[in-house]
Amino acid sequence: MKQNFDLVIFGGTGDLSMRKLLPAMYQAYSVGEISPLSRILVCTRKPQEVETLTAKVETTLRQFVPESQLDGEKQNLFLGLIQPVLLDLINLENGWGEFAGLFAGREDTVRLFYLAVAPSIYGSCCKNLSLKNLITPTSRIVVEKPLGYDYETAEEINETMAKYFQEEQIFRIDHYLGKDTVQNLLALRFSNFLFENIWDAKSIDHIQISITEQVGLEGRAGFYNEAGAMRDMVQNHLLQLLCLIAMESPNKLLAEEVRLEKIKVLKALKTIKDNEVNKSVVSGQYATGQVNGEQVDSYLEELGEQSQTETYVAIKAYIENWRWAGVPFYLRTGKRLKKRSAEIIIQFKNVTHNVYSELGHNLQPNRLIIQLQPEEKIQLMLMAKALGSENTQLKTISLDLDLQSHNSGNRPTAYQRLLLDAIDGNSTLFIHRDEVRAAWKWIDPIIESWKQNRKSPELYDAGTWGPSKADKLFDKQDYCWVNLSELS
Ligand code: BG6
């Protein structure tokens, strides 16, 4: 069980709080991780009766927590930890006095201030907390990705937070880092001797990292149309996955050591110059189509206005260091695609000499396939003799490791794990300011080039794998995006 804490959610009845934070806290409570003396203060701009708020939270739990984890008695006890707070985040005169009063006598209790609000309000939240002397040595602030809109705005936000909080008190969330399977990438790489000597440009031909989604706007038009896939997914989730695949081994599994290695990767990313953007980056936007057999609207229809925002991005990236020189990393993400999946394909080089060529066999290069979701498995694709064949017939077979079948019981959700880590002050799975900086430095020139050249995204039919132009990113003719759901 964790130490007592006060979790304060600014934007307490917003989408993030209702869909992710409160369900995650209930899940933590239901497995005994939260002490009964902890509190969850849900801050809102409109007055809320306790009963109204608890009814809302009950509904949200029913919607977002798996039924098997719902338990009437635990739910009631959990709801008892929740308190509505009427607070105008900007105006110090409105509610801050009463709010500060809530912490009297709890100076030593860990405080977690979760900014589930627009970044434009971060400054006044921090300032008001400071003016009311609410920032104690064991206080932490949590913010969501993407931090900022570009390098400059991210720096402004970081500067503002740094005025009031030490870097160790700032927890920048990228929920992909809270996923079990994402953490397993580190285990796979750094606890298996097998891979270390072949994890480089000498042995690896290329790497593909894909996060594909079936969902569309999901009611987040305001945010998404400003951000687009590049800021929403590439700047954070995809680059974090790339870091975990490409980084050197940290000396120890400590927050600062892991971050240091990730930062080195981000800094080594080769800048994609204006004149290279066209051949190294493809952006797309979904048109109408069928997803899972259902007709869906185009992005513009969902949005209800004209827009050049990209809902798909594919990039060929290079890391300029000894380990990875010359190895293309293909990154891809998009909404309204054929299947929901997050997968990494490590494609090895082919054997140097094919002794089977006279028998007419082309050899397929080995692949290590890591599927992060919806299934969680690792496959190693090898060539083998088809048993019983007269001539030596070869075929590709896979060594399969189904991670789910090796696990029992409930596993924490990404938000559950990250919130508990933040309460503990453990920042290993959070993003350092320098990572944010380096990621924007790489992303900004691409977005700037689109803007300067008035680049329109390629249209793709919803329910497909995105614009066909993305296949042209591959240098070699017989290479293409691997879609696991379509591999036999
Ligand atoms: C969020 C993005 O960070 O990640 C969403 O803002 C996206 O647009 C979501 O849908 C995907 O997360 P997951 O865990 O469902 O792959």
Q: What topology emerges from the helices and strands here?
A:
Elements lengths: L4 E6 L4 H16 L8 E6 L5 H15 L7 H8 L2 E5 L9 H6 L8 E6 L6 H10 L7 E6 L6 H14 L5 E4 L6 H11 L2 H4 L7 E9 L8 H26 L8 H14 L5 H7 E11 L2 E3 L2 H5 L8 E6 L11 E6 L6 E8 L18 E7 L3 E9 L8 E9 L11 H11 L8 H20 L5 E5 L26
Parallel strand pairs: 1-2, 1-4, 2-3, 4-5, 5-6, 7-11, 8-16
Antiparallel strand pairs: 7-12, 8-9, 8-10, 10-11, 12-13, 13-14, 14-15
Helix pairs in contact: 1-2, 1-13, 5-6, 6-14, 9-10, 9-14, 10-14
The chain binds 6-O-phosphono-beta-D-glucopyranose.
Description of the structure:
With 488 residues, the chain is of the alpha/beta class. The chain has two domains: 5-144, Rossmann fold (3-Layer(aba) Sandwich); 177-409 and 432-486, Dihydrodipicolinate Reductase, domain 2 (2-Layer Sandwich), CATH 3.30.360.10. Helices cover 34% and strands 22% of the residues. It contains 14 helices and 16 strands. The protein has helices at residues 15-30, 50-64, 72-79, 96-101, 122-131, 151-164, 180-190, 193-196, 221-246, 255-268, 274-280, 299-303, 414-424, 433-452; strands spanning 5-10, 39-44, 82-86, 110-115, 139-144, 170-173, 204-212, 281-291, 294-296, 312-317, 329-334, 341-348, 367-373, 377-385, 394-402, 458-462. Strands 7, 8, 9, 10, 11, 12, 13, 14, 15 and 16 form a ten-stranded mixed β-sheet that branches. It has a six-stranded parallel β-sheet with strand order 3-2-1-4-5-6. Helix 6 (151-164) links the parallel strand 5 (139-144) and strand 6. Helix 1 packs across helix 13 and helix 9 crosses helix 10. The chain is globular, with a radius of gyration of 24 Å. The mean pLDDT is 93. The structure holds 6-O-phosphono-beta-D-glucopyranose. Residues 213, 215, 232 line the site of 6-O-phosphono-beta-D-glucopyranose.
